[in-house]
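In response to the reviewer comment on reproducibility (Comment 2.3), we provide here a single inverse folding case reported in full, input and output, so that an independent group could reproduce the run without further information from us. The structure tokens appear first.
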């Protein structure tokens, strides 16, 4: 933690690594290392877990990730390159050409996924990408719409979690239902003045008004 205090940029990617990865770099390193998702059974020892939790509380890595649109876009582009490279390696050139980057950074999360790709058998892969410069257990934010699409398209929708992105990107996939892998906690609420007014009208009755 003392070292992180002296090097605050370590948890954020260098601008040249995030904003516009060169095509040649993506070609050379298109294939990602895909591992197994973390589980409770392979949690780190308690001492290490306490240290990492303390760092997460102090630096709020997940909140930084959520606000860093450049990091999110770079992660999505990296997964897109991986998907295309995987399909090309499997001889599915047509499917690789049909793989698309859904511009969710322009349309918010309207689609509920970031990359439209395909399995080698031709079935859809509606990939939601979550990217962090932190470790594999860094928490992440997910929207109600993304959860809804995950539930509606269970057989097509994987979440690809990219971690250690700025240094040596690695990834794992989470398949619905997400509750089988992570604990979901509501962190924000919509405050609607119109609904409040209707409630007040009902409470006081028409004669009062």
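Designed residues, in position order:
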């Amino acid at each position: 933690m003392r070292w992180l205090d002296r090097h605050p940029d370590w948890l954020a990617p260098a601008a040249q690594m995030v904003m516009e990865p060169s095509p040649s770099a993506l070609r050379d390193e298109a294939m990602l290392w895909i591992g197994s998702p973390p589980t409770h059974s392979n949690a780190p020892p308690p001492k290490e877990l306490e240290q990492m939790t303390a760092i997460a509380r102090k630096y709020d890595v997940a909140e930084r990730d959520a606000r860093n649109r450049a990091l999110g876009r770079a992660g999505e582009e990296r997964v897109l390159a991986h998907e295309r490279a995987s399909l090309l390696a499997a001889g599915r050139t047509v499917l690789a050409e049909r793989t698309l980057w859904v511009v969710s950074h322009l349309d918010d999360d309207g689609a509920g996924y970031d990359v439209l790709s395909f399995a080698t058998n031709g079935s859809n892969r509606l990939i939601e990408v979550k990217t962090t410069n932190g470790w594999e257990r860094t928490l992440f934010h997910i929207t109600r719409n993304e959860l809804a699409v995950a539930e509606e398209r269970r057989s097509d929708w994987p979440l690809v979690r990219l971690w250690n992105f700025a240094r040596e990107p690695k990834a794992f996939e989470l398949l619905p239902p997400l509750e089988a892998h992570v604990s979901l906690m509501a962190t924000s609420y919509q405050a609607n003045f119109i609904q409040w007014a209707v409630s007040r009208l009902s409470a006081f009755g028409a004669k009062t008004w």
